[in-house]
């Protein structure tokens, strides 16, 4: 598969019960971390590329014996220099499961030819079939294409050089920045509409759509960060800044509008395909099962949490009045039954007034 088309769901490798099942399969992101720039194995792979040398490297997970033939034992500590020297010989190099030792070299891989492969070269066919049969990690370095291919189970992934990965990560981060700008505008609008008590389910759907799109983009950037290792620290910092309170806002919105069905609504959003997610009407239809312009009132948890009102009072207000609209139009006598003192009622009025003022002048809350 090409890196640009890699979907997040493909990062998790399913078990095939008809083949070897290892004790605990690695998440593919953990596999990628093993080959991040700065690691010893990545240094060796980059050296092989620069030297225009080919190589076939297999990690021994204990299930290689039916596949590996001949060769000679090395059983020494792994270093990039040693691996490059051994790659000058024909055959595969076998590393320990953790990659810290070189176990053998000049070995012949003889996986089952019944296993399907999309590869054409002898080396890459052997690599893909070995990865599938033994459920292990196999690296094929092509001197002709100057390319590093990572095989793990049913996944075939091309390891790019760090400068190319950084370029893609930066471009994707710019996309996220644009989405964050739209999200902030939509959230400011939702704040205003909630306080004016004129929210429609379309207004809610637009914010939820944007948060979910941002989460999908974040996942792509995180995938790049795994490959970048320490070289991605600036991108990682910027990603953290951009996502900030996005997920928390989404969680609070879901609690406000779906109550006990929050988990169900969250799962439904996560299951939506990216194409389906791009149409706002799909979200309102699936989540609310109503027309997009129908009025709706939040419970008030999110907006009230942006004030200095104690959480226990917020919970009590929501429990008594059911939604934000009822809370905002409640008289002092009704508020007193929850807030307990006239001073607290006055404080509540002041906090709501200040909140409305901030929102009306476009200040972010």
Briefly summarize what is shown:
With 365 residues, the protein is of the alpha+beta class. Helices cover 53% and strands 12% of the residues. Strands 1, 2, 3, 4, 5, 6, 7 and 8 form an eight-stranded mixed sheet that branches.
Overview features:
YojJ-like (1; 3 domains; alpha+beta; 8 strands; 365 residues; 16 helices; Ferritin
Give a description of the structure.
The chain folds into three domains: 157 residues, DNA integrity scanning protein, DisA, N-terminal domain (YojJ-like (1); 138 residues, DNA integrity scanning linker region (Ferritin, Up-down Bundle), CATH 1.20.1260.110; 66 residues, no CATH class. 53% of the residues lie in helices and 12% in strands. It has 16 helices and eight strands. Helix 5 packs parallel to helix 7 and helix 6 packs across helix 11. The two termini are 43 Å apart. The N terminus is likely disordered.
Structural class: alpha+beta
C-alpha geometry: elongated
Mean pLDDT: 89
CATH architecture of the largest domain: 3-Layer(aba) Sandwich
CATH class of the largest domain: Alpha Beta
What is the CATH H-level superfamily of the largest domain? Answer: DNA integrity scanning protein, DisA, N-terminal domain
In percent, how helical is the residue content?
40-55%
- How much strand content do the residues show? 5-15%
Radius of gyration: 28 Å
Q: Would you list the SSEs in sequence order as H and E?
A: HHEEEHEEHEEEHHHHHHHHHHHH
């Amino acid at each position: 598969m090409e890196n640009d088309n890699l979907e997040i769901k493909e990062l998790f490798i399913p078990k095939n019960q008809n083949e070897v099942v290892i004790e605990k399969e690695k998440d593919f992101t953990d596999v990628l971390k093993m080959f991040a720039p700065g690691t010893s194995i990545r240094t060796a792979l980059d050296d092989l590329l620069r030297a225009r040398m080919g190589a076939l490297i297999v990690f021994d997970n204990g299930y290689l014996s039916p596949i590996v033939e001949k060769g000679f034992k090395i059983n020494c500590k792994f270093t990039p220099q040693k691996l490059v020297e051994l790659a000058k010989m024909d055959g595969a190099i076998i590393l320990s499961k953790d990659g810290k030792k070189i176990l053998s070299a000049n070995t012949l891989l003889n996986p089952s030819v019944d296993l399907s492969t999309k590869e054409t070269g002898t080396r890459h066919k052997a690599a893909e079939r070995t990865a599938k049969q033994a459920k292990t990690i196999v690296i094929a370095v092509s001197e002709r294409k100057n390319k590093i291919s990572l095989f793990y189970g049913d996944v075939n992934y091309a390891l790019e050089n760090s400068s190319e990965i950084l370029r893609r990560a930066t471009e994707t981060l710019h996309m996220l920045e644009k989405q964050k700008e739209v999200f902030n505008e939509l959230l400011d609008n939702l704040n205003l509409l909630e306080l004016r008590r004129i929210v429609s389910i379309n207004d809610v759907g637009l914010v939820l759509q944007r948060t979910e799109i941002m989460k999908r983009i974040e996942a792509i950037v995180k995938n790049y960060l795994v490959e970048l290792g320490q070289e991605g620290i600036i991108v990682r910092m910027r990603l953290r800044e951009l996502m900030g309170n996005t997920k928390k806002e989404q969680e609070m919105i879901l609690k406000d509008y779906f109550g006990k069905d929050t988990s169900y609504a969250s799962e439904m959003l996560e299951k939506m395909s990216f194409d389906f997610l791009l149409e706002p009407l799909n979200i309102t239809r699936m989540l609310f099962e109503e027309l997009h312009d129908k009025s709706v009132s939040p419970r008030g948890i999110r907006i009230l949490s942006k004030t200095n009102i104690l959480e226990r009072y917020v919970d009590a207000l929501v429990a008594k009045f059911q939604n934000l609209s009822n809370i905002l139009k409640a008289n002092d006598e009704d508020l007193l039954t929850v807030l307990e003192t006239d001073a607290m009622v006055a404080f509540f009025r002041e906090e709501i007034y200040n909140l409305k003022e901030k929102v009306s002048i476009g200040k972010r809350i």
